[in-house]
Design a protein that fits this description.
Blueprint: H1 2-19, E1 25-30, H2 50-57, E2 60-66, H3 72-81, H4 85-88, H5 104-108, E3 114-119, E4 132-134, H6 152-159, E5 166-171, H7 202-231, E6 238-243, H8 259-262, E7 263-269, E8 278-285, H9 289-296, H10 312-315, E9 326-330, E10 341-345, E11 349-354, H11 364-367, H12 380-386, H13 391-401, E12 406-410, H14 428-444, H15 455-462
Parallel strand pairs: 1-5, 1-6, 2-8, 3-4, 3-5
Antiparallel strand pairs: 2-7, 6-7, 9-10, 10-11, 11-12
Length: 468
C-alpha cells in the first residue's frame, strides 16, 4: 500500500512538472571500461564504492542495461545519438560517425539547453558532436597520477546561468588502462575474489588490484561531482544518470559480446519523480538514453531519427518493462584481425554468432603491445604459460581465442557465460527464436556482417566516407 501511494505521488509530481514546462538539468556521469558486476551495487565482492552505493539509495538502478558495442567510441556514439552503430555510422573503434549524424547538442540546444562534455570525448566527426568543451578532467587515457582533476570547469558550466538548463556529460577515464590511479595497497592481491572468467595467476591478481583501485578513484570523483550539485542547491532539479560504460580490459569483457562486455551499470536519480532505492528489471539499451533525455527536456522524440525509445515511463514507475530484445555487434578491426560478432538477448538468454569461427580471435591490446612498444597488459602471457598446468587457465585461453559459430547462454543463471547451451535440446526453441530475431535485426540495419569488419570499411568510415 505504501509503495503504491508513493508511486502515485511521484507520478503526480512528474505530471505537474511537465505540465508547467519545468526543464530539469541533466547530468550524465560515465565511468570508462568498468565491468558492471565489479561494482557492489551489482554484486561485486571486491571494490569499495561508497559514493555509488549512496547514489543507488537515491536512484532507480537498472539490472538489465546494455550497450550495442563493447568499445569506447561506438558505445559513446550510441549513447549520444540514440542510434545503433550501423545507423550513426560508428561501427568500429577509432572510426567516425556519419557527417549527417546528430547528437545531444543538436537535440537539446533548440529546447534551450547548454550542452557540454568534460573529460574523454572520443567521438567524431566534431560536426556531429558539437559539445561545449568543459575543462578540468582527463581527456586522454594516458594520464599522470600527480596531476589531479579540477572540478572548477564543470562547476562554472553548471552555475554560469541558473535560468538556463544544462545537459552535462562528465566522461571519466577511470578505470581504463593504464591502471595508475588510486591506492592499490587497499586491495592486497591475495585477498581478492577473482570472477570465474579471469585466470588466477599472480600477475593477474596484481593487475586486478590496480584495476579495483581505479574503480575506487572513479567513485571518489563521482562523489565530488554530486557534492557540487548538492552544495549549489541544484540537486532538486537535476536528473543524474550514472553508467559504467563497457566491461574492463580483461579477456571476455571489453571487445566481446559477452555479458561482461555489453552489460552496463545504469542508475538514475531524479528527486520527486524516480522512486529512491529502487530497482527495475526493464531491458534497456544505450540507444534509449538520448530519446529519454529529449523527453525529459520537453522535446518530442518523433522529431529525431532515434533507434532507441524513451525509458521515461520506467523512470516514473509506470512500468517494469521496456524492450523485448537488446542487440550487440563487434567488428574487431582495428583492434586486431577481422573477427565479426553479432548477438541478441532477451534478458534471460543470449545468442551469439561468431561469423568467422574458423579464425582465431586476437585482440592486440590484451595480447600485445601499443604502437610505441609499451606492453599494454602483462597478465595475458601468464595465462598462456599457466595453461600447461592449470585446466582453468587453459579453458579460459581457449574460450577467448577459439570460438564456435554459435554460442547460447542462460545468463539468468550463468552471468559469466561459462556454459554454452547451444546443443542443449531443452533450449532449442529459445535459441532458434533469438537467432531469427538477430537475423531480422541485421537485415533491418543493413549489416553485411563479415564484409563490414575489414580494413577498407574501417578506413572509409574513419574518413567519414562510409561504405555501408
Amino acid at each position: 500500500m505504501l509503495h503504491r501511494l508513493l508511486l502515485i505521488v511521484f507520478t503526480l509530481f512528474a505530471f505537474f512538472s511537465t505540465a508547467q514546462g519545468a526543464q530539469p538539468n541533466v547530468l550524465v556521469i560515465m565511468a570508462d571500461d568498468c565491468t558492471y558486476n565489479d561494482l557492489p551495487v551489482y554484486g561485486g565482492q571486491n571494490a569499495r564504492t561508497p559514493s555509488l552505493d549512496r547514489l543507488a539509495t537515491q536512484s532507480l538502478t537498472f539490472d538489465k542495461s546494455y550497450l550495442c558495442s563493447a568499445m569506447c567510441q561506438p558505445c559513446r556514439a550510441e549513447l549520444f545519438t540514440g542510434q545503433y552503430p550501423m545507423t550513426n555510422g560508428c561501427a568500429w573503434n577509432h572510426s567516425a560517425s556519419r557527417a549527417t549524424t546528430q547528437s545531444l547538442p543538436q537535440y537539446l540546444k533548440p529546447l534551450g539547453y547548454r550542452v557540454g562534455i568534460a573529460g574523454k570525448v572520443h567521438v567524431l566527426p566534431q560536426k556531429a558532436f558539437p559539445f561545449e568543451d568543459v575543462p578540468g578532467y582527463d581527456s586522454s587515457c594516458v594520464r599522470n597520477p600527480t596531476t589531479p582533476h579540477d572540478p572548477a570547469g564543470i562547476t562554472e558550466f553548471m552555475l554560469r546561468d541558473t535560468q538556463q538548463p544544462f545537459c552535462l556529460v562528465v566522461a571519466l577515464v577511470e578505470p581504463h588502462v593504464p591502471w595508475v590511479m588510486g591506492d592499490a595497497t587497499a586491495y592486497p592481491p591475495q585477498s581478492l575474489k577473482l570472477p570465474p572468467n579471469i585466470a588466477d595467476t599472480e600477475v593477474t591478481r596484481d593487475a586486478y588490484s590496480h584495476y579495483l583501485a581505479e574503480i575506487t578513484y572513479m567513485d571518489q570523483q563521482v562523489g565530488e561531482i554530486l557534492e557540487i550539485i548538492q552544495t549549489n542547491q541544484l540537486d532538486g532539479n537535476t536528473v543524474v544518470f550514472f553508467t559504467s560504460e563497457q566491461g574492463a580490459q580483461f579477456p571476455g569483457c571489453k571487445w566481446t559480446n559477452y555479458d561482461t562486455g555489453v552489460h552496463t551499470a545504469l542508475m538514475c536519480r531524479w528527486p520527486g519523480v524516480v522512486q529512491p532505492d529502487s530497482r527495475t528489471s526493464a531491458l534497456v539499451q544505450y540507444a534509449d538514453i538520448a530519446p529519454t533525455i529529449v523527453e525529459i527536456a520537453g522535446g518530442k522524440t518523433a522529431d529525431f531519427p532515434f533507434d532507441g525509445h524513451s525509458i521515461l515511463p520506467v523512470l516514473r514507475g509506470e512500468t517494469q518493462h521496456h524492450r523485448q530484445f537488446v542487440y550487440g555487434m563487434h567488428n574487431n578491426f582495428p583492434e586486431g584481425p577481422s573477427y565479426p560478432i553479432r548477438s541478441v538477448s532477451d534478458g534471460q538468454f543470449r545468442y551469439i554468432t561468431n561469423l568467422t569461427p574458423d579464425e582465431i580471435y586476437i585482440e592486440k591490446h590484451v595480447m600485445g603491445r601499443e604502437s610505441d612498444g609499451r606492453l599494454n597488459n602483462t597478465y595475458w602471457g601468464t595465462w598462456v604459460w599457466d595453461s600447461q598446468t592449470s585446466k582453468r587457465s587453459y579453458d579460459l585461453v581457449r574460450r577467448y581465442m577459439l570460438r564456435p559459430s554459435e554460442e547460447f547462454y542462460r545468463i539468468a543463471d550463468d552471468p559469466y557465460e561459462m556454459h554454452n547451451l547451444v546443443h542443449d535440446p531443452q533450449h532449442q526453441q529459445a535459441k532458434d527464436n533469438l537467432k531469427t530475431q538477430l537475423g531480422q535485426w541485421m537485415t533491418s540495419q543493413k549489416d553485411p556482417g563479415i564484409e563490414l569488419d575489414t580494413k577498407e570499411s574501417h578506413n572509409a568510415a574513419k574518413k567519414v566516407n562510409h561504405r555501408f
